[in-house]
Please model this.
Amino acid sequence: MSLVVTGATGQLGRLVIASLLRTTPAADIVALVRSRAKAADLEALGVTLREADYGRPETLAQAFRAGDKVLLISSSELGKRDAQHRAVIKAASAAGVAQVIYTSVLHADTSKLGLAADHRDTEAALAASGLSWVVLRNGWYTENYAASIPPALAHNAFIGGAGNGKISSAARADYADAAAIVLTRDIPSGTIYELAGDEAYTLTEFAAAIEKAAGKPVPYVDMSEAEFKKALEGAGLPEPVAALLSDSDAAAAKGALFDDSRTLSKLIGRPTTPYVDTVKAAVKA
Model:
């Protein structure tokens, strides 16, 4: 059985393949990529490359083989994800793959996150497909907030709109290890994992961790959803991205990014990466 990783040159996809390579022969791993040139390093490791593009359904017809176990990493193209995911599911069904594993979002069925709607639609499409499926409902990546550390250090303030909401994030590598484990195990169809970090923090606490690592004051400045969106757009982010991030923080203020089940650490067999470690690494970089 081949283990197929879609979006293999993306941030999560590369980490999943790196995790798989620790226990799985490279010959058993297939990377779905839009450009072979961008995946030359994976091919050099012995990973098989297949070219496919979520946005070009005609390329997906030859992307899968009967018996493949497929990790469908959710698309990052806002407004197009539902159609793209459905195209992947259709191609996988036609090929007769053994199982599709999908990276959804934490508590997708009840989440107030605006981005959860696409994930709910994809989960429904999987359930109706007749395929064997597993859903990894990933919580927030700590790197999502760590990406804002450079401007926070430059402007001596960490801005956001999550109020006192608790955020149970984990490092991207933690979620990648979980995906690799599920790819290599026999998991019953219909299994859903709610995955999040062991720790929960507020953005005030996150900013305090930045202060400690940087050795200078970097207070958290809480904003309304509209104010935060405007600030993000002022920093150069496209409107759809600014809207997604400000909506996500507003939902986080109401608990959308909190989970204390520790399912992720149980699945990967170790504690999740402490958020302060990710902060320290970002400050050092």
Q: What stands out?
A: Residues 108 and 116 are 5 Å apart (CA to CA). The longest strand covers residues 99-105. Strands lie at 3-5, 29-33, 48-51, 69-72, 99-105, 133-138, 158-160, 191-195, 220-222. The chain has 13 helices and nine strands.
